[in-house]
Specification:
binds zinc ion, alpha+beta, elongated, 6 helices, four-stranded antiparallel beta sheet, five-stranded antiparallel beta sheet
């Protein structure tokens, strides 16, 4: 599913290609993706305006609109992509790793469309229909963005209380943007067991986790998504650690399928 790096790719695409183009029409007829808005509500709110800025915190993205209009929130869900088409018909994509043209396409997988006056468009393409478009999405419940959190704030957030450290990394109200693959990659890079309790982490653990967060994010942004992480290809039965060669272990931590190195990520009770 799209995590911070994928959503940032989509945000940059909108910032680079979709701002300051007048919105001439809006297809908001998918009442599930556009809930709680009624059909026509997004059209009435957005037609005639332009997008003026594209912003993101964690996996939540929103666009500011002209003349004091509402913010347009777009969440990519489990596999959504943003497709921006220029006035001359050139399409560019941002979001999850699976490109739109790599899949059999059905028109109804375009869940939401802004039609620009210049003839181009911005589309939320989402086969699984788990994305969401809404006006003025709340971001107050989100923690600091994982790409912007300071080492001191991260250290406090990751050591407080007594939950599995992986659950804490996935808690969007504490740190926004880390999903299941990034969490496994960060813990593996830092050599921390996913079920280690937050309250038992030492300052050195918190420092390694912070550096792993920074490096995993930077690498995923450069290489095209969280699926490119070093340990991701080893997340399967029979997989071995790409660093030391030991067998990978599997379990459910924080409610999610989790893989870790049996040798370097020692169980917390040792
Ligand atoms: Zn290992």
């Amino acid at each position: 599913m799209p995590e911070l790096p994928e959503v940032e790719t989509a945000r940059r695409l909108i910032a680079d290609e979709a701002l300051h183009r007048r919105i001439a029409d809006v297809d908001d007829s998918d009442t599930f993706v556009c809930r709680p808005h009624a059909p026509g509500e997004l059209r009435a709110a957005l037609t005639g305006r332009t997008l003026t800025a594209a912003r993101r915190r964690g996996k939540t993205m929103w666009c500011e609109t002209s003349e004091g209009g509402p913010d347009l929130g777009i969440h990519l869900g489990m596999g959504g992509r943003i497709v921006v088409t220029s006035a001359d018909g050139q399409a560019a994509e941002g979001g999850g790793p699976r490109r739109r043209d790599a899949q059999p396409r059905k028109p109804e997988w375009d869940r939401f469309t802004l039609g620009f006056a210049d003839g181009g468009s911005l589309v939320l393409f989402d086969k699984r229909r788990l994305g969401r478009v809404r006006l003025d999405p709340g971001i107050d419940l989100l923690g600091p963005d994982a790409a912007e959190v300071t080492p001191a704030d991260f250290g406090r957030l990751i050591t407080r209380g007594s939950v599995a450290v992986k659950a804490r990394l996935l808690d969007q109200s504490r740190i926004a943007g880390v999903g299941n693959l990034l969490a496994d990659e960060i813990l593996w890079q830092a050599r921390v067991h996913p079920a280690a309790r937050t309250g038992t982490l030492r300052p050195g653990d918190a420092d390694r986790l912070y550096r792993a967060l920074e490096s995993a994010l930077a690498s995923a942004m450069t290489r095209g998504g969280v699926h490119t992480g070093e340990v991701i290809a080893a997340r399967h039965p029979g997989g071995t650690c790409p660093r030391c060669g030991a067998e990978m272990r599997h379990g459910t931590v924080g409610g999610r399928s989790t893989w870790w190195c049996s040798r370097e990520q020692a169980p917390p009770d040792r």
